[in-house]
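Continuing the series of single-chain predictions for the mutant panel. This is the parent chain; the variants come on the following pages.
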Amino acid sequence: MEIPEDYIKDVEAEYSTAGHKKFLRYFEEVVNTKPFQEEISRLREKYKIPINGFTTSNRIYPPEDWVYRSSKERVRFNRELEKLCERNNLHYMDSSLLLEPYIFYNELDLKDVVYERGVFNLFHVSDLAEEAKEPFGKSFRDSDNLAYPVAVRISPYASLRDILDFVKKVYKRSILPMQEQYRIKGVRIGKSKKRKSSIKERNDFIYQNRHLPRKEIMRLIGDKFGENSVIDYAYIGKIISLEKMRRKEV
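Parent structure:
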């Protein structure tokens, strides 16, 4: 089925926002933390998912080879996944779209995220009147309330200039204090710094090989990234320490 052009433009507009980019950076940092990785391993073991995911090329959710595909355990698995998202301040309905490929197939490609409106962002546009008539399930409401607890209701007669003027003038006095009530200590959404993809790839590579002698890591960096990318012993140690901290808690 062909995706309507207007829908594509809507998604592209949402994915071009700073809120979308901040969400993906935070999501990636959360997934790379040690506690989160331990939870993923626990879920795979408990629900009989291969430790490195299924290897079939036919990407179906849940996988056809999963023994719990059509059982009550699948419901329990979904509930545990929902709780995992809640503990990490992630919108379950959004994040599960990224987590399922990761848990089942060990794939986490944030450059090719699901093409869908109203997901992976720090903002969400809702038709509140329509939702009141046909309310979503409890999981949708709970996830929305967790991720977007502060709302600015907009009149159908407000212009773009009116909206921007309102937010600019009342943000510090009305919106920010409300946001601060819901902020959880330690959650770094919006604080995760953007890194060049080449530097990120290099640092991830160093961390993955941290058990090797520094001299061997230097050689591997040169082989993989070129001689101009080689760094000294001390800097390799610093990167390993920083990456350990980054993965410890987000």
